[in-house]
Amino acid sequence: MKQQTFSDIEYSNRRKKTKREIFLKIMDEIIPWEEWVSIVEPYYPEGKRGRPPMGIEKMLRMYLLQIWFTLSDEGIEDAIYDSYAMRKFMGINFLEEQVPDATTLLKFRHLIEESGLGKAFFEAIRRCLEECGQIMKGGSILDATIISAPSSTKNAAGSRDPEMCQTKKGNQWYFGMKCHMGVDAGTGYIHSIEATSANVHDVAQAEKLIRPDDEVVYGDSGYLGIEKRSEIQEDENKSKIDYRINQRRGKVLSLMEGPARDWFCYIEHQKSSVRSKVEHPFHIIKDTFGFRKVCYRGFAKNLNRLFILATSVNLLMCARSGGWRKRLA
Prior knowledge:
Strands 1, 2, 3, 4, 5 and 6 form a six-stranded mixed beta sheet that branches. About 30% of the residues are buried. The two termini are about 20 Å apart. Helix 4 (about 55-70) packs across helix 7 (about 100-115), helix 5 packs across helix 7 and helix 8 runs parallel beside helix 14. This protein is α/β, with parallel strands linked by helices. The protein folds into two domains: about 5-115, no CATH class; about 135-295. The chain contains 15 helices and six strands. A hairpin with a 5-residue loop joins strand 3 (about 170-185) and strand 4 (about 190-195). The chain has helices at about 5-10, 20-30, 35-40, 55-70, 75-80, 85-90, 100-115, 115-130, 205-210, 230-235, 250-255, 260-275, 280-290, 300-320, 325-329; strands at about 140-150, 165-170, 170-185, 190-195, 215-220, 240-245.
């Protein structure tokens, strides 16, 4: 057990813990740090030349703080100096060491992005959840959400991000990327993530989000006609899936009052009651972690960030539902 500092003793006498401190304590206990360090280790500098590199776990903790609180490289460095909860999560004692600077974090972030380690973390946690029975099999829920991007051309290049596109939803235009997500129908954990430009239709990415063992798939009206698509019909397993897709509201209004309309509304309500589980992960990504706008240009870096966020969502949901690190070991 590490020796307490005077700051630790002082803060331990507080009457109330902040939500940030409680959240960081949960994530500190549930994340399998040894496994994640082993994933990064093959790509990390050995330190045989020049200045010895910072510890992998320390840099990983700083990187996760940056992702969770949507801060810049300089912003998270300042925040750790300023916040006791963040400093405690980092495990830093100012009598012995200082916070890694913004440049060191920048290089570590580039290493994570270029090596595709965000997806590796996501796959590792998903496998653990499957092995311990937290993720069920047999059904998926599909949905997509738009992540906005800066539409202004007042920059050095004088142009928008070439990989982002605009699309119309309702009576409003949006510019950015679209996050496509596959969620386990039983528990609501995320099992698949894809990223495209905003003008790509939801159903176009559905085939990539369906698991091989799925028997039923839920989706909103954006996935109508999925069973007629060539990539679904040509696949032996996916062509046999029961696609329970919500109908458009106009179809309900076109029916006359009576038992037929009541039965139709009942069936749609049953579909929606299952499909609504996909909204919770989106809520955590957009509201809790604040990822409503892209942080970088292009898909690669933003998709890596989405994988890290999806991993964090699964861990947070597992902790809140009573899951524990021992169950993920």
